[in-house]
Amino acid sequence: MQSPCVGICQLNADQLCVGCGRSLSEIAEWARATADRQRRIKAEAARRLAILQAVSDAASPSSGCKEQ
């Protein structure tokens, strides 16, 4: 199975990669993980990325909002 790495390898304060959503231990485990484990890692990473994106979107000012 192809790695979920997208080449943006930076860990946030929670020690999660902001590019792929994996934890440092999941990144280290990837090459030796079974296909089933890799699928679970990818699913969990995708869930984390969705949460990170939602939090980021909520923290960003709305583009429709204008100061008066």
TrEMBL record:
Pfam families named in the record: DUF1289
Cross-referenced InterPro entries: DUF1289
UniProt protein name: Fe-S protein
Species in which this protein is naturally found: Hydrocarboniphaga effusa AP103
